[in-house]
Specification:
alpha+beta, four-stranded antiparallel beta sheet, about 45% strand
Length: about 400
Amino acid sequence: MLKEITNLLKGEVTARVESGFPERVLNICGEYGIPFWDLRWESPVAFTFTLARRDWKRLRKLSKRLDCQLTAVGWRGTPFFLGRLRHRYGLWVTTGLCLLGLFYGSFFIWDIEIEGNMTVSDQTILRVLEEHGVAFGTYGYGVSSFRLRNDLLLDLPELSYIAINVRGCRAYVQVRERVEAPEIISKRQPGNTVAAKDALVTAIQPWDGEKMVLPGTTVTAGQLLISGVVEDDYSGVRYLRGMGVVYGRTWYTLQCRVPLTAAEKRYTGEEETYRALLVGKKRINLYFGSSISLDNCDKILSWDTWSLPGGIPLPVTTETAVVRHYELEERRRTEEEALALADQVLTSRLAGYIGDGEVLSRELTGQVEGDTLLVTLTAECREQIGQFVEIPKE
């Protein structure tokens, strides 16, 4: 396979030999080291074979002293292909201009890749970079990471490190997000831990202070659980931080109403496709008029970035918009569908109440009232109910 590719790059000629003694041509090839292949006899006095382009020229000179007819019947390879195009000056000029444009464009940034960010979005970083002169189309060799680093960190306080490395027409932005220091707790400020909500205490772990209830005790919201005021016979009254965690069982009853009738989309099957070219920051629409002509339709956008072989990006992106038309139809929900929808809403609301707690048991019931379904969620949970409250200084 590699040999065939090499022969095509160099060019190969299929020749036909006709002579009373055709084997003399083969003897010359052997004497002067001219390789050939695909030998095929047409008759006792004629055959065809293939050889390299440069060997064809040698063989023509050597065969002049022989009484034979040497004819080229086929040409293959890159030299012959380019030879057919040698008089197409417009093609060569266009190719040269394209290569010159690619060479000139390689000095500018056409792609920005961001790594290391988790909470800070790419759009935020790109916006700040653009404000400091680093954007699509920026001259790559004019970007100084050392000079920009301090200015970028001032505008992005969420980051602790940022570096910009330009390689070709791509800029690699490496960031490291700042880790917030934990809150410093002052033990000099006394306080108490009270119940944040009504619950049945299952476990209590005082870190500092004295616990005021035992597991199995039912408490109400605001009741003292861990006291920061401790009194003994030796040191008298002491004011402590009164911190700790208290776990308890809690009960919730949540309700919501779900309409049994709803408007639903029914797609008509009519679709329209619109395309546009994004060259740098310029948009070129490949259609006339607005991309959406009616209100009742969905618009689905997709982008396809152009690139050269090897993954080298180009500053050209094709934007495709598919518009799907629909009609609104009123449909009646079943009780099962309404119950499932209410389950999602009430479960999300319950998760906001209990935080890191867990649901021990739950029951979901529904009751039809007119055109709505009244859904009730009853849940038993286990959660941390302790809330620290400082004791005001006198």
